[in-house]
Amino acid sequence: LSDRLSGVFERLTKQGALSDEDVKTALREVRVALLEADVSLPVARAFVKAVQDKATGQAVTKSVTPGQQVVKIVHDELVHVLSGDDANPGEMKIDNPPAPILMVGLQGSGKTTTTAKLARRLSQRNGKRVLMASLDVNRPAAMEQLAILGQQIGVDTLPIVKGQTPVQIATRAKQQAALGGYDVYMLDTAGRLHIDDVLMDEVQSVRDVVKPRETLLVVDGLTGQDAVNVAQEFDGKIGVSGVVLTRMDGDGRGGAALSMRAITGKPIKFVGLGEKMDALEEFHPDRIAGRILGMGDIVALVEKAQETIEAEQAERMMKRFQKGQFSMNDLRMQLDQMLKMGGMEGLMGMMPGMGKMKGQMEGAGVDDRMLRRQIALINSMTKRERANPALLQASRKKRIAKGAGLEVAELNKLLKMHRQMADMMKKMGKKGMLKGAMKGMF
Ligand code: GDP
Ligand code: MG
């Protein structure tokens, strides 16, 4: 194993980092993939440019080609742009009952269907009492459509009164929601084939009456380019808090999602995946990214290669530890890891045989601040000193401590700890305990 490994790492150092040329070649293909997925040209251009700056100079994972590596970087960047800063895309502001949710969008985009799907989700999953009302006074049978869906999913709809204006219906829904003790009321508005002033005026006056907590724009995910214009219009005139992309069960590649997010900055909250009432999912940026790029197999390949490398690195490290080769760099890595894992407690608990040391460390007042000071000390050592702490005589110690702004005594403590850990690793290696102990750490 170690023979093969050293060969591999030689290759890695030779292959080194992504060159300008590698990145450019790969990004040409990525650009084509984006445009084919219906991402708008300016967005594709800006996106590729951003990735180019990010990718050049990055290390190439062994056993993948530079091109594959770029694809993975592109994928990660897509996910990043698609998700923005939202941790929970499907979350909605529905406290302070009754919370109005306004559904807007063009005709045929899937507003009525999505209204019912969301109502079902809110009632079944979140246990909310939901009232739905159709404000669509234009299309014959539009109100009945919503009432039928309501019956199907067991959600109340506002009784139909013919001859009322959308604002009158919205007012009635608001009153009914308050009187009936509903948590949420959802207003399904009428759409038009194209955006026009009449539609926008109508939706605006409804908005002003109910002051929606969420205004969700429903967009047909197959419309690509147009979706962005629609989103900009609605956001400018009405103010949109989130987007629902419908028909993502079709074979469109979903580039609209990227354009829309990049241009309007509005979070995509849900995705419609069919006509059935349960065909609604919260937005998963990685799934859409995979679709847009259409190179899911490459992404998976690179991820696998990266995992393998991590496992191999851990194995290599363990072999060294068993031989008692535990450098200051190793120690620093462990300290970093401890910080990441929330301090000493977690890590020490994971390593058998650490119990005694844990007690000692606690006695010595080891905490995160101490970890940071220790890391600073190691950072202040030269490369040679880190590899071979035996070099550290008085003058070097002074220099290192000064560099970290600390006392030599503190450095001595660190050195002692390092020796103890190296000893322990060696002993554990002999007893065959090291592997198990290290498992929890990676
Ligand atoms: P509205 O005019 O915006 O209210 O649109 P509707 O809700 O009436 O939907 C128009 C058509 O699109 C209906 O036949 C729906 O069943 C269908 N539809 C809505 N959402 C989806 C979806 O996510 N996937 C598929 N395949 N069809 C959908
Ligand atoms: Mg409708």
From TrEMBL:
Can you state which reaction this protein catalyses?
A: GTP + H2O = GDP + phosphate + H(+)
Give the gene that encodes this protein: ffh
Supply the InterPro entries for this chain: AAA+_ATPase, P-loop_NTPase, Signal_recog_part_SRP54_M_sf, Signal_recog_particl_SRP54_hlx, Signal_recog_particle_SRP54_M, SRP, SRP54, SRP54_GTPase_dom
> Could you tell me the keywords of this UniProt record?
Cytoplasm, GTP-binding, Hydrolase, Nucleotide-binding, Ribonucleoprotein, RNA-binding, Signal recognition particle
Domain comment, as recorded:
Composed of three domains: the N-terminal N domain, which is responsible for interactions with the ribosome, the central G domain, which binds GTP, and the C-terminal M domain, which binds the RNA and the signal sequence of the RNC.
Q: Where in this chain does the record put each SRP54-type proteins GTP-binding domain? A: 267-280
EC number in record: 3.6.5.4
Q: Which GO terms describe its biological process?
A: SRP-dependent cotranslational protein targeting to membrane
Name of the protein described by the UniProt record: Signal recognition particle protein
The source organism is Pacificitalea manganoxidans
Identify its membrane topology class. Answer: Peripheral membrane protein
What's the stated role of this polypeptide? Involved in targeting and insertion of nascent membrane proteins into the cytoplasmic membrane. Binds to the hydrophobic signal sequence of the ribosome-nascent chain (RNC) as it emerges from the ribosomes. The SRP-RNC complex is then targeted to the cytoplasmic membrane where it interacts with the SRP receptor FtsY. Interaction with FtsY leads to the transfer of the RNC complex to the Sec translocase for insertion into the membrane, the hydrolysis of GTP by both Ffh and FtsY, and the dissociation of the SRP-FtsY complex into the individual components.
Where does it localize?
Answer: Cell inner membrane; Cytoplasm
